[in-house]
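cron nightly-structures :: item 1 of 1
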Amino acid sequence: MEHFFASSPRGLEPLLAAELASLGAKNAAAVPGGVAFAGDWRVCYAANLWSRLASRVLWRVAEFDYGGEGDIYEAARSLAAIERSSIGKIISRLARRALAPPRQAKSRGGFPGVEGPDNVRPLTPEMVRDALDED
């Protein structure tokens, strides 16, 4: 189980905790500025996709004590394994899918209502679900 933090405007923390719990978050604890919670990656994606109160959802990759700037850099260097983790692979799959040519030919204008380059597709919940299911 992973640990996350969803930031929110002050005063909305209790409402965000309830919202995250309804999305499947475990141990949601409101603190000033957001909610700490636990869950699997599906809960994280659900919070990112459907939360109306969270400003952003952050993944806690480590917890350590520090006494100065050097300790922070040393801890960050020790986390290089994250790039090789399963979430790194999932993010790579999602990026490839978003940049892949669409399966069906689209008009020259790209996707209706979507601004941006013609070769970038918006990520859909189905794309996220498929990328998670590959592991």
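cron nightly-structures :: done
The chain has two domains: 2-59, 69-103+114-133.
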